[in-house]
Design a protein that fits this description.
Number of helices: 0
Number of domains: 1
Strand content: over 45%
Shape: elongated
Order of helices and strands: EEE
C-alpha cells in the first residue's frame, strides 16, 4: 500500500488565427490518494481538485 500526491500547473495558449483572439487556459490540479497492489492488479482511490481560469 502506498500514499500518492500530485500537483500540476498548466498553461495552454493557442496562436491567433483566422481572426480569433488568443485564448489562454490556465489551471492547476491537486490530487491525493491510496494505491494498493495485489496479485489481481492495482487498486487506486484518488481525490482531486481542479481549478481552471479561462480568460475570455
Amino acid at each position: 500500500m502506498r500514499w500518492e500526491n500530485e500537483a500540476e500547473y498548466r498553461y495552454e495558449s493557442t496562436s491567433p488565427s483566422f481572426g480569433q483572439p488568443d485564448n489562454p487556459l490556465r489551471g492547476y490540479r491537486l490530487s491525493t490518494g491510496i494505491a494498493f497492489r495485489n496479485t489481481w492488479g492495482l487498486f487506486r482511490f484518488t481525490l482531486s481538485y481542479l481549478d481552471l481560469d479561462v480568460q475570455r
